[in-house]
Amino acid sequence: MGLPSHIDTFSESNPDPATPAARGRRTTIATLFRRAEVEPNKVFGSFPLTDNIEDGFRDFTFAELAKAVDACAWNLKETFGTSEQFEAILYMGSNDYRYIIFFYAAIKCGFQALFINPRYPIEGVMAVIEKMKCFKAFYSLEERAVIENIQSHRPGFEASELAPLSNWLDANPRPFPFNKTWEESRNDPVLSVHSSGTTGLPKPITFRNGYFATCDVLWPIPPGKRSIHPVAGIEGCQLAFSIFPQAHAGGLIMNNIRPMYSNCATVMLPARADYTRSAAMVLEILKRRSVDTISATPLLLENICQLPGGVEALRKLHSVLYAGGPLRHDIAETIAANGIFTLNIYGATETGFIPALKVDPEDYEYFHFNPYYKTVFEPVGDEVGSHELVIRKDSGPEEEELHSKRGICWSFGVDEHRTKDLFVPHPTKPDLWKYYGRTDDILVLAHAGKINPIPLEDIISTHPGVSGTFVTGEYRFPPSILIEPASKVADHKLFMEEVWPTIEKANAKLRKEMRIPKEMVAVLEERGLARGIKGQIVRKTNVQKHADVIDKLYAEREKLVK
Question: Which UniProt keywords apply (predicted)?
Answer without folding.
Answer: Phosphopantetheine, Phosphoprotein
